[in-house]
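User: I'm designing a mutation panel for TonB-dependent receptor and want to avoid disrupting the core. Could you give me a predicted structure to guide residue selection? Please restate the sequence first so the numbering is unambiguous.

Assistant: Good idea. Sequence first, for numbering, then the predicted structure tokens:
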Amino acid sequence: MYRATASLIAIALAAPAYANEKDPTDERQSQDGIANPSESIIVIGGRIDAYEVAGAADLIDGEELSEFEHGDVNRVLRQVPGVNIQEEDSFGLFPNIGLRGAPVERSSNITLMEDGVLIAPAPYAAPAAYYFPAIGRMDAVEVIKGAGSVRYGPRTIGGAINFRSTPIPTESLAGEASGQLGSRGYYQGHGWIGASAGNFGALVESYQQGSDGFKTIDGLPGAETGFQRQDYRARFAVHTSPDSPVDARLEFAYGRSELEANETYLGLADADFASDPYRRYSASQRDVFTGEHDQYRLTGTLRLPDDTQFAVTLYRNDFTRSWSKLQDIDFDGDGSFDAIQPVFDAPSSNERGLAILRGADSAEGALRIRNNNRVYRSEGVQLSFERPFETGEVRHNLAASLRYHEDEEDRLQNEEFYTQTDGDLVFVRQTAPGAQANREAKAKAIAFYLEDRIEIGGLTLTPGIRYEGIDLTRLDYDRADPARLDGPSRIRKTNIDEWLPALGATYALGDVLLIAGASRGFSPPGPGNPEARAEKSWNYEFGGRFRNGAIQASAIAFYSDYSNLLGNCTQSVGCSVGDIGDQFNAGAVSVKGLELAASTEHQVGREISIPFSVVYTLTDAQFESSFESAFFGSVSQGDALPYIARHQFYAETGLAFGPASLLVSANYTSQVRTEAGSGDISPDERIDERIVFDLAGRFALTEGLSLFARVDNLFDNAYAVARRPSGLRPGAPRRFVAGASVRF
């Protein structure tokens, strides 16, 4: 009953007002004030237009996000070419996203932002995305790849993704609310209300999402395997009057997010997956994640009459998380704990181990659960300047930015030991805080960027250069000193200075815009890794865009030449060598591919329209040298990188008739390697190809009130999404969802 109420309460609050029908979406998207463009990364002279960017740029606006009302970022980003995704929990809670063949692990190889501000827990010291903004509350999503991404750093090899949150409306009163309920206790509710009056504006917002989950734990059929998420936001602004000669604005934003997820890293053996992919082993019954995130942002913007713009943003993000999950097991009861992965590598040779995973009795204290307790802080200030001007017949748009940033990750982890009896885990003992890990990772960085957009007739050149100066520090403390009274037992420091040039170019030929770009790609190593070199590449792209009325299309070829690729040791990839957080050099790697996209809308008479869009990505990523590595294994030149699908395809079409619409989407992903290799893929190192269909329908009762329904995984396709870190993981089964939305 609580979930139904949480999902629908926003509609109940807003319903009395929908008679004042007004759609604020268009106004919020097209307003020419500086509030929205300052939070966008696709900005040209104050205008948001992905078509004109010198490089690959994609914008998913609010109208497109509302078509399926997805709460899973993986399903949203399928419609962007060049995006590589490894699903994990099938709700999008812990996404693994890469761009243009960059490794996908925990989205740590791309630059993630919310409203133009770095949003990863510790973007320099520990960027793994254990916090990720809820896609269901976003107003738009922007993706930039290639030369244009050097502007945003620090990770410029794959690109950048920016999530634009709900802005303060320009009306005297506006709001929106939606709620949906679905299979297996799924719920999603989103509501905001805001106003602008005189020189002031404000907005409050809430987003709620959860599910009972779709897996069943052995011996515990009623146990939840789902999650609960709560997001709360508030924004307050003061600004000059519309008739003022300058446009000035000061805005404060605060956000609070909480997540509890009954998620595990423990998958299934192949035979068990084939029998029931939604089964979960008994040994994972105490695995649970909890996280709390607080976000603060103060932004001041100023636009002068000559369109010169200044912006300064102070920001801070605090994130605490604890993920208790099965670490290893004393299978033989001899006091020696063994890794779990060998059970999945050879289940017939590890029958005792597989039996304990399934729920068989164990020796006393034989199951070790690690409390991955971490605290993150990220804060800084960024300044930007933009000025358009002309020199004769040449138009310029000069842009500069400066950012000072600090972040840190604090690990104080311990472990608990359990005995499995009759399928139940019984607590035995625990170690003191810090006994498993007691360390800090810190980063201080100063970065600046300078760019001039030069327009000469139909030719536009965008030269730019970025600097990253980074100081990384790792402090290791004695594990028997949780209060850290004796200070660090070891200090390791790394200093990095990098210059990253970029050049983008476009040339207009009627309805065709040719684009080309070259840029220096860079990702910093983690703290405390003296053997790990920075990740570097040269990135190239060439292609074109076409736009004529309702028809839009693009084709871009890309090539990334890595001088060094880094492998990150994380528990999410099943790393069993060194310490979590260590990095390993892979040397030269090449990634080449093709991104195709097209969309149109065909009008049939006055009432009926048929939209159609298609996206295709080809990615060929391979090692360019042979080597032996404890992390990568035995690699031969020409071996393909793991977890990068060669072919990805997304298509969407439907029918709109008056107040009703029906859309269907199809997503195809080719087979994926889970280990580096070439030639035919052995079954135990393969994720099979899949195609998943989603269906969505909407009916507008009034201009402001709509009913909608959706079916995820329409044909109930059972498919695997990963083998790491331990065993096969399933995608979500078919889910029915129905709801309503109202706006005023």
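For picking mutation sites, this is relevant: The first strand starts at residue 56 and ends at 60. The helical segments are 2-14, 24-30, 62-68, 73-77, 270-275, 341-345, 351-358.
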